[in-house]
Amino acid sequence: MLVSGLHPSERQTVTKRRLIRPAAWVAAVLCFAAVAGFAVLFLGQRGYLGQRLAHRIQLEITRRQFDRLYSLPNPPFLQQPNEFLTRTASSLQKGAALVVACGQGRNAVYLAQEGWDVTAFDISEKGLEIARRTAQRDGVPLNAIEADATEFDYGTDRWDLLLLVYAPIPYDDAGLLQRIKASVKPGGHVLVEMPIEMHQPPERRPRIPGDLMPGELPELFRDFEIVSYSETLDVSDFYGERKLIGRLLARRR
Ligand SMILES: C[S@@+](CC[C@H](N)C(=O)[O-])C[C@H]1O[C@@H](n2cnc3c(N)ncnc32)[C@H](O)[C@@H]1O
User: If you ran DSSP here, which 8-state letter would residue 43 be given?
Assistant: First the structure.
């Protein structure tokens, strides 16, 4: 070998080069992979961890906003049950109901008073406190859970009625929507009342939770039987603002 014919000091240099060069390459490749991985996972808007992190931060901001809102001495939102719900629920077969993003529990407590077996969840512990207190005051059972709609275990074929009334969930999350749909019993209903509005262009991803385009709701539930759908300029029955309001009643086939 060439190395063996060299002066010992030269031999050492060549050996070092042979060892160091590949090591430097490996280190460079690892560094590049780490930087690229970090960029893809954390920085990219579509990166999984980037999205999870953004979701966590957004959730915490929303939770604080609603905790503050539900702690106000004179709440600025309407507290009577949703009118579309009260006019619809009486015609439905009573059973297990899930109220998604139940807030202070106006609709959950109403359903419990009507004899439904109600589970309700929200991220706001302050809202849930009010819901539990009202249910206790009215002597009706209510299972009120602190949970995030994107992570809640909806189950399968579980609910006779699932409520998405002013529930700001990411409606464009196909996986989430699929889990929600599969949790409704065949023959059970989904009742949605949501403002139809986009806070950013529809092509921007991820969408702001709750954003919905005109005509999108019945399209999202096209595999259900659409019992009724309307989009009307009306008063939102949470904040009382005039908006385009979508109301959907859909039945799982
Ligand atoms: C406009 S309020 C409506 C509350 C209730 N649905 C009603 O109609 O009275 C929206 C509620 O959604 C809850 N919320 C927002 N994001 C949520 C999430 N990812 N999971 C569960 N609840 C959420 C908020 O804490 C708040 O109580």
Answer: I
> 142, 118 in Cβ contact below 8 A?
yes
Alpha-helical regions (H) of 142-231:
174-183, 216-220
Alpha helices in 48-185 (DSSP H): 48-71, 83-89, 106-113, 125-137, 174-183
| 42-54: pLDDT as tens digits | 665 567 777 888 8
Check: pTM over 0.90? Answer yes or no: no
Which of 12-16, 81-85, 114-118, 229-233 is least confident? 12-16
The 8-class DSSP code of residue 199 comes to S
Atom of ligand 1 minimally distant from the CA of 169: 19
- Ligand 1 nearest atom to the CA of residue 209, by list position: 16
The domain 78-251 is placed in CATH, from the list 3.60.10.10, 3.30.830.10, 2.60.40.10, 3.40.50.150, at 3.40.50.150
User: What ligand 1 atom has the least distance to the C-alpha of 77?
Assistant: 9
Give tens-digit pLDDT for 101-154.
Answer: 999 999 999 999 999 999 999 999 999 999 999 999 999 999 999 999 999 999
Q: Which residues have any ligand 1 atom within 6 Å of their CB?
A: 59, 62, 66, 101-103, 106, 122-124, 127, 148-150, 165-168, 238
Instruction: List CB contacts of 164: < 8 A, sequence separation 6 or more.
Output: 100, 101, 180, 190, 191, 192, 193, 194
- Residues 222 and 226: their CA atoms lie apart, in Å, by 7
Beta-ladder partners of 117: 96
